[in-house]
Amino acid sequence: MRRDGRLSGVLHVLLHMAEADGPVTSERLAGVMGTNPVVVRRTMAGLRDLGLVASGKGHGGGWTVACDLDRVTLHDIYVALGSPEIFAMGHRSEEPECLVEQAVNASLAAAFRDAESLLLSRLRDVTLGRLSADFHARLAKRGLCGQEAPSDDV
C-alpha cells in the first residue's frame, strides 16, 4: 500500500520557501515534490486559505510563506491538508460475527487510538521554526555556515 507523503512534502517545500529570497513558482515546487504544478497549486491554495502561504501572479510571482514559523505547528499543516489518514492498517472486517475477530479488532482499535493520539500530540509540539532551526544546525555542522545552502531542489 502506498504511503501518503503529502505532509512530509509540504513541510519540505515550506522550509525551502522560508529560505528563498522571493516567491517560488508552482513549477519549481512541483519539481521538489515530484508532482504536477496543478497538484502544487491545489495543495498550496488550501494553505493559502488558512493564511499560511501567499501567492502572487504574473512575472516575479509565486508562493511565499505568510506565517510566523515559530507559531505554526506540524499539526496545523496536517489539519490544513485535510487531516489525512494516519495509518494504512485497519480491521479486516468492521463488524465481524466471529468472537476471535471481535477481540482482535478491539485490541487493535485501542492500539491505533493510542498511537494516533501520541502522534498528533507530537505534531502539536513541533513548529516550523523548530524544523528551520534543525535545518540551520545541520547546515552549520556540515560546514556551510555563511555560504549559500545547497539548492539541489529549490
From TrEMBL:
SUPFAM superfamilies: Winged helix' DNA-binding domain. It holds the Pfam family Rrf2. GO terms for cellular component: cytosol. It comes from the Bacteria. One of its GO terms (molecular function) is DNA-binding transcription factor activity. This is Rrf2 family transcriptional regulator. It comes from Methylobacterium durans.
